[in-house]
Amino acid sequence: MTPQTSRSIVSVKENTLTSRRRNLKAMHRKVSRTAIIFIFAAIIFGMYQEMPAQKKKSKKAPAAKQVKPAAPEISYTVSMSKPATHLLEVEMHVKWQSMPAQIELKMPVWTPGSYLIREYARHVQEFAAAGASGSKLNWRKVNKNTWQIDTGGASEITARYKVYANELTVRTNELNSDHAFWNNGATLMFVKGGLRVPSTVAVKPFGSWKVATGLPPVAGAENTFRASDYDVLYDSPFEVSDFREVNFTVEGKPHRVVFSGDGNYDMKQTAADITKIVEQAYKIFGELPYDDYTFIVNLRGGGGLEHLNSTALQTNRFAFKPAARYKGFLGLVAHEYFHCFNVKRIRPDVLGPFDYENENYTTLLWMAEGGTEYYSNLLLVRAGLITDKEYLAQISSAIQQLQNRPGRFETSLEQASFDAWIKYYRQDENSINNQVSYYDKGELITMMLDLAIREASDGAKSLDDVMRYLYAEFYKKGKNYSRADLQKIAETMAGKSLDDFFTKYVGGTEDVDWQSFFGPLGLTVNVTLPNTGKAYIGADMAEEGGRLTIRSIPAGTPAYDQGLNTGDQIVAVDGYRASQAFLQSYVAERKPGDKVRFTIFRFDVMRDMEFTLGSNDRREYSIQKVAAPVDAQRRLYKQYLNAEF
Ligand SMILES: [Zn+2]
Fold first, then answer.
1. 184 Cβ partners below 8 Å, 6+ apart?
2. Which of 182, 258, 279, 621 is most buried, judging by how many CB atoms fall within 10 Å of its CB?
3. Cis link prior to 353 (omega < 30° from 0)?
4. Phi, psi of 420 (to 5 degrees)
5. In this structure, what is the dihedral angle of CA atoms 401, 404, 406, 411, given to the nearest 10 degrees?
6. pLDDT tens figures, 204-258
7. Which candidate, 461, 436, 460, 449, places its Cα nearest to that of 501?
8. 19 pLDDT tier (thresholds 50, 70, 90)
9. pLDDT digits (tens, 9 = 90+) for 87-106
10. Average pLDDT, the chain
């Protein structure tokens, strides 16, 4: 389906075609001889019926020679003999009966779930290749991520290289005196055209470190794991360290949480809370689509990355207290866990099988990411890990952020999804003016879709039914879904057209009519301008090392309209030295329309600027319950948030 897949299909086809051509040549020779005999016979017997005989022969001939070349057998060894060097040592062994004279080994340029070209090949060093006897093989780079080796027809080769691993994020690698964490997509090369072949990975841990990964172990081989293909291999990160582990079971399936590092966590409590999250997801789908599941928690860094039967999570080691902070961690867990359904199995169009060498463009990240973020909070409410009030407060804050973002009129959810590769992962000072986040707005719009379905079906259906349908009719049947599929399924559940909804809020940039969605639940969206009439500059500033600098300027603010720039250093206001605290109090004593004189450094030139203060019309949003709900509102509210109105 993706370019990479079609390439593998093409290469198989090419082989088949070549042998077919050979067969045809041989057949042609046979046929010619047969034809002569037949023609001879026909002349003798006055019959001219050799053609059917010929056709029969030509049908038989290829069947006799349908020998497919065996797939390469691939095994890796990953060692870490000197953790302080941050170098993972990789050995890749390729055994292949049909080894070509030149083989190409490729390093992925990105890893699924994190939509940015990361050029993992840049961390490869000390590459070498050898034949079975250990003889050195010549090789060369043919592009940024491809190593071409002259195999000389050897049926076995070994490539050795090191990967510099000194960046702890969920999509990169780190090896140091404390642990090793790596993503296989950033570490292990694949044979060109060979993404559908199985492989094994043997890990040689440093000292007494243990190994955690979602890959199944190979029986009888220590610290050795197998992957059925590269979409599985590249989907399974490794944590190798002195981690602590806690286990629990849901619906007979073993789950484990691996904590790497010290912190203020309570393993038992965390396991109990994660159990509740898993149970709520199970309630939606009626099954857990894996044999076992591993949560890898590194107590440093931040963020998470979803995988088929594992997730990599990173958080501050002291993020487990107080309760409000801990709920943030549980939200991260719920997000990455829910992905094992939404995106890893319920897959938008191009997201799997993957092309590891190019961007994989989809307009559906708003559903994959925003929808997952929506469900992560919903799972927490349903599990009783946050209250309905806390949930609605979060949603209010998300609406407020979106409504104060000028970029909402510039970029739709679909455009934001499509351009993730060049925009979401490459935010700059102008992002607020020309982008929306497919996470944040995606969460809100999937929520509005849910509320629309609940209202239209009078509570009989919800987004849960859409997810279940996608799971049963798409994932279970080996299909990815399109935008049209999603809209059609949502419309079936709602029992009405949602064309207007998708046109305005998914494909378009119209402001959302929030009240129309919240009203049926007995909720009102209150909009206030608490600071209107107060003097206002409108630039986002930060103070660092005694310098007060503008970080970004939302469009439509006085700062934007009067020409302040991102990067401008505010030195003084009306001749007084400007600190952030002083500027705030100085401006607070003035009225909209008052003039001040800014002294700024723009680049390395000092200048003065007359500035007219504006009025702070930043809107605040809060979701409130109506004073006297009708029965239908009470019912929909309870169905939705599992709490009395
Ligand atoms: Zn996500």
1. 201, 227, 233, 234, 235, 236, 237, 238
2. 182
3. yes
4. -50, -40
5. 30
6. 999 999 999 999 999 999 999 999 999 999 999 999 999 999 999 999 999 999 9
7. 449
8. very low
9. 999 999 999 999 999 999 99
10. 91
Cα–ligand 1 centroid distance for 289 (angstroms): 18
Q: Dig out the tokens for 434 from the structure.
A: 């020309």
What is the band of 70 on the pLDDT scale with cuts at 50, 70, 90? confident
Per-residue pLDDT, averaged over 413-422, amounts to: 98
In this prediction, residue 139 carries a pLDDT of 98
Q: Separation of 306 CA from ligand 1 center, angstroms?
A: 7
Ligand 1 center to residue 18 CA distance, Å? 44
532 pLDDT higher than 80: yes
pLDDT at 564 over 50: yes
pLDDT of residue 65: 52
Ligand 1 centroid – CA 311 distance (Å)? 11
Cβ-Cβ contacts under 8 Å for 36 (sequence gap 6 or more) = none
DSSP assignment of 232-263 equals HHTT--EEEES-EEEEEEETTEEEEEEEES--
SS3 for 461?
A: coil
Distance of CA 24 to the CA centre of its chain: 47
Q: Distance, CA 414 to ligand 1 centroid (Å)? A: 16
CA of 335 from ligand 1 middle (Å) equals 6
189 Cα to the center of ligand 1, angstroms: 25
The residue type found at 595 is K
Asked whether the beta carbons of 356 and 185 are under 8 A apart, the reply is: yes
The C-alpha atoms of residue 503 and residue 625 are separated, in whole angstroms, by 29
How much is the pTM? 0.88
Please check the confidence at residue 125 and state whether its pLDDT lies above 80: yes
Residue 354 C-alpha to ligand 1 middle, in angstroms? 17
Q: Per-residue pLDDT averaged across 625-631, rounded?
A: 97
Q: How far is the CA of 278 from the centre of ligand 1 (A)?
A: 16
State in Å: Cα 339 to ligand 1 middle: 7
Give yes or no for residue 119 having a pLDDT over 50. Answer: yes
Residues 6+ away with beta carbon under 8 Å from 209: 179, 180, 240, 241, 242
Q: Which two tokens stand for residue 211?
A: 């190994």
- Which DSSP string do the residues of 507-559 spell out, in sequence order? SS-PPP-HHHHHGGGTEEEEEE-TTTTSEE---EEEEETTEEEEEE--TTSHH
Cα 330 to ligand 1 centroid, rounded to whole Å: 14
Cα 112 to averaged position of ligand 1 atoms, centre (Å): 11
Q: Give tens-digit pLDDT for 574-589.
A: 999 999 999 999 999 9
Cβ distance 326 to 352 under 8 Å?
Answer: no
Contact at 8 Å (CB) between 128 and 105? Answer: no
Q: Among 300, 294, 296, which residue's Cα sits nearest to residue 261?
A: 300
Beta strands 73-79 and 199-204 are: parallel
Report, as an integer, the average pLDDT of 32-47: 38
CA of 359 to the centre of ligand 1 (A): 17
Quote the tokens at residue 206: 């440093």
CA–CA gap between residue 395 and residue 391 (Å, rounded): 6
Taking the C-alpha atoms of residue 114 and residue 103, their distance in angstroms, rounded to an integer, is 29
How many angstroms does the Cα of residue 552 sit away from the middle of ligand 1? 26
CA of 533 to the centre of ligand 1 (A): 40
Give the Cα-Cα-Cα angle 89, 90, 94 (nearest 5 degrees): 160
